[in-house]
Amino acid sequence: MSPSSSASGPPRAADVVNEDIRALVRGAGRRLTDEERAVYEQLVVEWAAAVQREIVEAA
Fold it and tell me: What is residue 19's predicted lDDT score, i.e. its pLDDT?
């Protein structure tokens, strides 16, 4: 789930990153800690880049 691990590998699909976001929020079941919030923010950035990449590829 760590975005840093995906940075060393090939880019992940938006739906895969979205599942990581959902799992993080669902797993917390409460307000996110500062560390979880940082992971969440990195995942959202990764997700947005994946969405953009998929749009460009589809065009």
Answer: 98
Q: 42-57 in b/e burial notation, b at 16+ Cβ within 10 A?
A: bbeebbeebeeeeeee
> 7 pLDDT band (50/70/90 cuts)?
low
pTM, whole model, 2 decimals?
0.79
* Helix extents (H) in 1-59: 3-8, 14-28, 34-58
Angle at which helices 14-28 and 34-58 cross, to 10°? 160
- Cα gap 20→12, rounded to integer Å: 11
